[in-house]
């Protein structure tokens, strides 16, 4: 019993001294260490604070805002496409207008070439005297020169190669016929063989020009301003 009492008194004295040494001056007890301090001291990680979840109204507002800010690229793309389509349509219309204007000029020159082959040449060849034939031919020279100039301009203004070739070919055929007729009326009659040879050249040139122009339209009727009418 004496040994147990001695141990009890020793333990009590030790605890009292420990409490007395740890207490601050003035008798105010030391603050109790917090859980986080204890956890830091013991090496145990403290739980991470979780942010509160956004309310459903805020999430819906965010989704609506995102959807409203993604429509403008599509509108911009649509405007670009519409602009390109409009530009293409305008260019196509302008190109079509250029083609139609050129084709209309060519039709006018073709009518004039048809007049040379069907009307002028026939009138010149039908005259019994060289003087009368030369009078008709000389009266037609300004018109023939205008036809040549128009076809030359059409060749330079042609919007494509096919149209340029058409104008060039037509001009060449008209010139061949004009030269054949001019050679016939400015040359002495000569022998019958020579006369027939010249007329054969004229007939060949007329056939080639008529083949390029197509058959004569009977509904068109005689053209105004022929040299015969001017000289009569």
Automatic annotation (TrEMBL):
The keyword Transmembrane helix applies. This is DUF4129 domain-containing protein. It comes from Terrabacter terrae. Keywords: Membrane, Transmembrane, Transmembrane helix. Residues 1-65 are annotated as: Disordered. Residues 7-22, 33-65 have a biased composition (Low complexity). The chain crosses the membrane at residues 71-90.
């Amino acid at each position: 019993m004496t040994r147990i009492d001695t141990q009890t008194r020793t333990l009590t004295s030790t605890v009292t001294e420990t409490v007395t040494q740890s207490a601050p001056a003035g008798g105010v007890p030391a603050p109790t260490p917090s859980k986080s301090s204890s956890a830091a001291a013991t090496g145990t990680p403290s739980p991470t604070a979780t942010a509160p979840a956004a309310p459903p109204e805020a999430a819906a507002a965010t989704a609506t805002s995102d959807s409203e800010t993604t429509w403008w690229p599509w509108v911009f793309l649509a405007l670009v496409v519409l602009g390109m389509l409009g530009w293409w349509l305008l260019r196509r219309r302008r190109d079509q207008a250029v083609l139609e204007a050129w084709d209309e000029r060519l039709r006018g020159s073709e009518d004039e070439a048809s007049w040379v082959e069907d009307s002028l040449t026939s009138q010149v060849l039908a005259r019994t005297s060289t003087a009368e034939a030369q009078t008709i031919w000389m009266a037609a020279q300004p018109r023939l020169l205008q036809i040549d100039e128009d076809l030359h301009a059409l060749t330079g203004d042609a919007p494509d190669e096919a149209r340029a070739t058409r104008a060039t070919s037509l001009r060449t055929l008209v010139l061949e016929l004009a030269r054949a007729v001019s050679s016939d009326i400015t040359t002495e009659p000569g022998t019958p063989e020579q006369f027939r040879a010249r007329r054969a050249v004229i007939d060949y040139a007329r056939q080639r020009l008529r083949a390029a122009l197509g058959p004569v339209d009977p509904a068109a009727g005689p053209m105004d301003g022929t040299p015969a009418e001017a000289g009569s």
